[in-house]
Amino acid sequence: MASRLQQRIEQQNDHSIDMSPLLDVVFILLIFFIVTTVFVRETGVEVDKPQAISASQLDKTVILLAITDAGDVFYDGSQIGVVGVRSTLEQLQQYDPKPVVIQADKNVPTQLLLEVIDEAKLAGSTTVNIAALKS
Fold it and tell me: Is the pTM above the cut of 0.70?
């Protein structure tokens, strides 16, 4: 009888939950989300920027637009074209106005660059900059 009572007590004590595997999974998920979070939205294309002596480093909290040598306008890896610049920037700056930086290829026609700058200013952007490499 005493052995049966002792077995029941041991069985009741074995019903505890080990929390260490759960904590490991939670920390791994936390690390995964931190690593995969995008802090600065890149343009998604590589452009050959012109060089300028007066080039300076800007803040990281900017909206980046890219104009390729083929005349395509990109934001966050998506081609938005010149007609999409105004609506995209209006949505982005509705609650948090940020400066706009245009990464234009050095072979982009001036007319196209001016059209993108005009659309950015019509969207309400007060500061529009052109990215360049410091020479």
Answer: no
Rounded Cα–Cα distance for residues 20 and 128 (Å): 52
Q: How far apart are CA 51 and CA 130, in angstroms?
A: 11
The residue among 38, 42, 39 whose CA lies nearest residue 76 is: 42
* Residues 49-79 pLDDT 10s: 666 555 556 556 788 898 988 889 998 888 8
* Residues 7, 52: Cα–Cα separation, whole Å: 82
Q: Residue 79 pairs with which residues in a beta bridge?
A: 74
What is the rounded CA–CA span in Å between residue 127 and residue 135?
A: 23
CB 64 within 8 A of CB 116: no
Cα separation, 102 vs 63, in Å, equals 8
